[in-house]
Amino acid sequence: MNPAMEYTLTEQAGSILVEWMGLTLPVEIKYIALALLVLLPFLFLFRRAIARFADRHLHIHWSPKVYGLGAPVLSILCGLLLYFAKEPETMIAWNLGENGVYVKSPNGKAKMDWAEIETAVYPEPKSKPDMEALVLKSKDGRQVWMDFSGLAPEHEETVLDFINRSTNNRFNLHPDETRPDDE
């Protein structure tokens, strides 16, 4: 998991939802495109006055024809940019609820009830050195991997406390156990 990816942690009554979103167009670019979309028609309508002003005060020596052609082209580009900018989709989601854990990731989906979980272990750092994960294993061999490398320490503690409460403290998980020893 890329630690630079943004995530949201939502705590509701009896559940925790952690979602990592995909990349989208930054908000600043959306606002700049929207502002240009609003202002460019005025550039087209008042192109002669703007060309004189730019020539005299800004030392930009463009003819009114350049402003007359450039404004609609930029306006169309900004409109297309805003039209095709989509909301990001959820890349990874952990849903920890009263009944169990549901994990959706690019590797697939996994669901496990709290009663089914037999062990909660941290894999050896040698197997995946860039990952600080908790692996929940069920009695029938299924596994749910939860990578903590992208979480803030206080959110990691919140998730582990929730798992401890939900499993009646069977595993006694602590956030400092997820960090490999510096040897």
Distance between the termini: 24 Å
What proportion of the residues is helical, as a percent range?
A: 25-40%
Task: Give me the side-by-side strand order of the main sheet.
Answer: 1-2-3-4-5
Strand content bin:
25-35%
Largest sheet: 5 strands, antiparallel
Mass-distribution shape: rod-shaped
Quaternary class: single chain
Provide a count of the helices.
4
Order of helices and strands: EEHHHEEEEEEH
Helix/strand class: alpha+beta
pLDDT under 50 segments (min length 5)? 178-183
Radius of gyration: 26 Å
Structural description of this entry:
The chain has 183 residues and is α+β, with helices and mostly antiparallel strands. The strands form two sheets. A five-stranded antiparallel sheet has the order 1-2-3-4-5, with helices on one face. The chain has a three-stranded antiparallel sheet with strand order 6-7-8, with no helix packed on it. A hairpin with a 2-residue loop joins strand 4 and strand 5. Helix 1 runs antiparallel to helix 3 and helix 2 packs across helix 3. The radius of gyration is 26 Å and the shape is rod-shaped. The two termini are 24 Å apart. The C terminus is likely disordered.
Summed up, what is this model?
With 183 residues, this protein is of the alpha+beta class.
